[in-house]
């Protein structure tokens, strides 16, 4: 550290001996964990970490912090003294890697450069030091290749093409068969590519190499693929990345060296055992890139038992220390094991649930912590359908089951096509020999990913698991030709781009055509058709069952369903619903009843209108009787008619054509003409902001009265049948308390009449939907007439943002998401700063007026995991969502109640 540095100036560089795993914000995940392993006494090559704060200064100002160079120099000097050699020293060079390392793992999204310090002078020294000329020139060509692509922006394909030519000239298929002389020629070729494409010579000064690589890592934080990945994974854009400078250890020194990736448990299933990949005579990038096919980690016991046994002990140490599945990168250099990285490993949804319960049983974590190890998004993945095992299928290959799921789609062979076809509504499977970070947008767009190379630790596998995408890797039987956009399967059959294929990420099987799917065992469990048992499917069900029990014990938020009929209500109840938060009565006016609604709309006299309402009353009443029976003993919130009346009438264009045809044929068309006149009369430029909701009840006499009477009579009938109906009447689209007061007064009168007529005491709560900004802003006044608020966040989002959901999602939301204006659609996850602030203030104002005011939400945000946490924090009593999202909401409500500051298992 520089002597003239201010005493309180920030520290930008930390030795591995100075940090720990809790400093991820400052040192990034990789740096914090390298420090933690160093503290544990594990064999970590010496090095240092440049902080995320230095990166943020650089990104904000365009220049590195003034003190950074001096700090790096001081730590480099210390590293050189520790290693007994200097960076790039001609006769005995110290070589280092420069790796990115953000707080949250972003596999392959940012830059890494290995073998920094090699030059025309030092390559000979490395050869003498290692007594291996081939190794030295192989390391040098790797440096030029990675540096050229990563730091100087040279097209990586140019290096790959030159490497392929060198192998073809030698008549070999793998780079390990190239000899020292071949690699020396390749270095010359690579340097010419750099000079031509980058307009400069490959730098021979080792410090210049390191400084440029550090800047490249900083710059990669704002690279297109990194920004896209952060948007996909909802990682904040302002975190920056740390940079790790680590002394090199070499896995490409011959058959007694190698590199690998290991997991303390299977990241696909969660089962304990020996899982991972190993590659002899290779550097780490060879494994994760999936370019060379690896051997299973268990083979290391045969290849190098001493290193294998040491690795097994280290893996046990790390899992017990981190109390979680750990993902480990290691290198063996001539029989000596080195640990290069560890992190809490990404896992599939099924593995997440299994591992969480296993760790509880082992006493490593408690129920509260277990809930932080799973997410509602993972539970939703487990509820997706799976392939029908009894279906007639044509299996053509089997690869590695890298990320589970059943994916069906048209085969595409590049990311551009995947995105293009997906945006046109096609389901696609991205097929590649191996994926790389540039394929990210195609991986996001695809239903699943299929590669012919790589294993469970390849780029495709790691990224797919993180995104919850179905993935099959290493299907070696497939011959993938990306240039001709086809793949050849065993037997010679050719799959052209656009042909439908199916992939099973749980078994690794690849099929021709579309394979039918069946319900997930998790859905069957929630439906009551499957119970925990002994086989693999039941083991998953058991884990889900236990985690749901944990969540239900911990959560404060109750979970209701959005359901409009008895069938949906019964399903919701099986899924764990604690009532109905939204019954949309307009759905009861469709189908065969539309004609009665048309009569009501066309009524010219009070008598005609009353006759129409009288005909609708028993139908509505029966609907409510069935609903109350299905949800007996649980609250049922019924929203009175909300949409504009023209939605119940025929389409204006279709009706105009019918009238015109009837007139041309001189056929009777009086009814169609009246309907057309009504459609014109009711037409509004913006019906979402027109005559709907409470406004209908105020201008169409008897409409809301009929609905309230039907609810009250249905409740009385259920009570007479010894049932326990708990109806709540919700008035929609209220903007001022006076609207609610008028409707409430009429509703109270009708309820009293039904009580008198049936001799039954009814307790029907009356409240309102808060879906307009004015309602939220005047919530204190509205609460004087309301016993509950239900936030209609779909409409509230529309009215706060000025968006028409039906239009904007198709027209410009894609552009807004791509430009980063939205991290996620505000209709998918609640806008906490805008819509959310209105929810908070309305909840607080309402409860100041009426302390026992019941608060809920019935927009689809009620089933969104992130939104559920917000509603918990805002003090709501319940969320309501569609039946299939109820388990997700239950789980997230439990997680919200137990979430501790700083706990994050991305």
Overall mean pLDDT stands at 89
Radius of gyration: 33 Å
Binned strand content = 15-25%
Question: Which strand order does the major sheet show?
Answer: 12-22-21-14-15-16-17-13
Major β-sheet, in short? 8 strands, mixed
- Please report the total strand number as a whole number: 31
**Shape, principal axes of CA atoms:** elongated
What distance lies between the first and last C-alpha atoms, to the nearest angstrom?
Answer: 35 Å
Structural class: alpha/beta
Uncertain regions: pLDDT < 50 for 5+ in a row? 1-6, 900-906
Number of DSSP helical runs:
36
Helix content: 40-55%
Explain what this protein looks like in three dimensions.
It contains 36 helices and 31 strands. The chain has 906 residues and is α/β, with parallel strands linked by helices. The strands form six sheets. The protein has an eight-stranded mixed β-sheet. An eight-stranded parallel beta barrel has the order 24-25-26-27-28-29-30-31, surrounded by six helices. A five-stranded antiparallel β-sheet has the order 1-2-5-3-4, with helices on both faces. β24 (558-562), α21 and β25 (580-584) form a beta-alpha-beta unit. Its cofactor is Mg(2+). Residues 542-894 form the PEP-utilising enzyme C-terminal domain.
């Amino acid at each position: 550290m520089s002597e003239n540095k201010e005493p309180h100036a920030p520290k930008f560089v930390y030795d591995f001996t100075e940090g720990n795993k809790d400093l991820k914000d400052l040192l990034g995940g990789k740096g914090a964990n390298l420090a933690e392993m160093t503290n544990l006494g594990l064999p970590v090559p010496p090095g240092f970490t440049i902080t995320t704060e230095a990166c943020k200064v650089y990104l904000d100002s365009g220049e590195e912090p003034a003190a950074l160079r001096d700090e790096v120099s001081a730590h480099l000097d210390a590293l050189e003294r520790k290693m007994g050699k200097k960076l790039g020293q001609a006769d005995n060079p110290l070589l280092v890697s420069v790796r990115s390392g953000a707080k949250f793992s972003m596999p392959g999204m940012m830059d890494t450069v290995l073998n920094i310090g090699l030059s025309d002078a030092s390559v000979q020294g490395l050869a003498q030091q290692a007594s291996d000329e081939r190794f030295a020139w192989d390391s040098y060509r790797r440096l030029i290749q990675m540096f050229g692509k990563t730091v100087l922006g040279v097209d990586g394909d140019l290096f790959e093409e030159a490497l392929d030519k060198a192998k073809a000239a030698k008549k070999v298929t793998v780079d390990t068969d190239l000899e020292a002389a071949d690699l020396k020629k390749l270095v010359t070729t690579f340097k010419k590519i750099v000079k031509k494409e980058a307009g400069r010579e490959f730098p021979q000064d080792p410090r210049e190499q390191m400084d440029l690589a550090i800047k490249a890592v900083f710059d990669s934080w704002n690279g297109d693929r990194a920004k896209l990945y952060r948007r996909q994974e909802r990682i904040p854009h302002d975190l920056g990345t740390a940079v790790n400078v680590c002394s090199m250890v070499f896995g490409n020194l011959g058959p007694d060296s190698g590199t690998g990736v290991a997991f303390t448990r299977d990241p696909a299933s969660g089962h304990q055992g020996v899982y991972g990949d190993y590659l002899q005579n290779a550097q780490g990038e060879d494994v994760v890139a999936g370019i060379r096919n690896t051997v299973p980690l268990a083979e290391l016991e045969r290849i190098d038992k001493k290193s294998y046994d040491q690795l097994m002990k280290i893996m046990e140490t790390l899992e017990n220390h981190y109390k979680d599945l750990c993902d480990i990168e290691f290198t063996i250099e001539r029989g000596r094991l080195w640990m290069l990285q560890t992190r809490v490993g990404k896992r599939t949804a099924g593995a997440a649930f299994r591992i969480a319960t296993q760790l509880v049983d082992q006493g490593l974590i408690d129920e509260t912590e277990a809930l932080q190890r799973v997410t509602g998004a993972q539970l939703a993945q487990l509820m997706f359908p799976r392939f029908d095992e009894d279906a007639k299928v044509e299996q053509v290959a089997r690869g590695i089951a890298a990320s589970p799921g059943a994916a069906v789609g048209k085969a595409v062979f590049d990311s551009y096509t995947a995105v293009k076809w997906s945006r046109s509504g096609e389901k696609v499977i991205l097929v590649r020999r191996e994926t790389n970070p540039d394929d990210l947008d195609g991986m996001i767009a695809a239903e699943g990913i299929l590669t012919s190379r790589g294993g469970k630790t390849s780029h495709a596998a790691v990224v797919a698991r993180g995104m919850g995408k179905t993935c099959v890797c290493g299907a070696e039987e497939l011959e993938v030709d990306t240039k001709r956009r086809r793949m050849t399967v065993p037997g010679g059959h050719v799959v052209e781009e656009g042909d439908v294929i199916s992939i099973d990420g749980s078994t690794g099987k690849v099929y021709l055509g579309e394979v039918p799917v069946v319900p997930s065992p998790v859905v069957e469990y929630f439906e009551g058709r499957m119970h925990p048992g002994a086989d693999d499917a039941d083991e998953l069900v058991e884990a889900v069952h236990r985690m749901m029990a944990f969540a239900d014990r911990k959560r404060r938020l109750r979970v209701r369903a959005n359901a409009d009929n008895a069938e949906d209500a019964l399903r919701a109840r099986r899924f764990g619903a604690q009532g109905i938060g939204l019954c949309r009565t307009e759905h009861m006016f469709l189908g065969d009843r539309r004609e009665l609604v048309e009569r009501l709309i066309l009524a010219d006299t009070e008598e005609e209108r009353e006759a129409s309402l009288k005909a609708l009353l028993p139908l509505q009443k029966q609907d409510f009787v069935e609903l109350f029976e299905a949800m007996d003993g649980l609250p049922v919130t019924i929203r009175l008619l909300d949409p504009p009346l023209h939605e119940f009438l025929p389409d204006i264009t279709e009706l105009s054509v019918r009238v015109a045809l009837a007139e041309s044929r001189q056929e009777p068309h009086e009814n169609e003409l009246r309907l057309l006149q009504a459609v014109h009369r009711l037409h509004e430029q913006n019906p979402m902001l027109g005559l709907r909701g409470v406004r209908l009840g105020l201008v169409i006499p008897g409409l809301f009265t009929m609905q309230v009477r039907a609810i009250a009579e249905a409740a009385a009938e259920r009570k007479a049948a010894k049932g326990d109906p708990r109806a709540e009447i919700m008035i929609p689209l209220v903007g001022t308390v006076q609207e609610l007061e008028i409707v409430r007064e009429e509703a109270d009168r009708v309820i009293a009449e039904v009580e008198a007529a049936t001799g039954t005491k009814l307790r029907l709560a009356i409240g309102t939907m808060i879906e307009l900004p004015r309602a939220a802003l005047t919530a204190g006044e509205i609460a004087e007439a309301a016993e509950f608020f239900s936030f209609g966040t779909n409409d509230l989002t529309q009215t706060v943002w000025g968006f028409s959901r039906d239009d904007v999602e198709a027209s410009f939301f894609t552009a807004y998401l791509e430009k980063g204006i939205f991290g996620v659609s505000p209709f998918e996850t609640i806008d906490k700063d805008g819509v959310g602030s209105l929810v908070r203030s309305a909840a607080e104002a309402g409860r100041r007026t009426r302390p026992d005011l019941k608060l809920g939400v019935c927009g689809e945000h009620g089933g969104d995991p992130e939104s559920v946490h917000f509603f918990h924090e805002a003090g709501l009593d319940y969320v309501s969502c569609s039946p299939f999202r109820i388990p997700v909401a239950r789980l997230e409500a439990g997680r919200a109640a137990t979430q501790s500051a700083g706990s994050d298992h991305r």
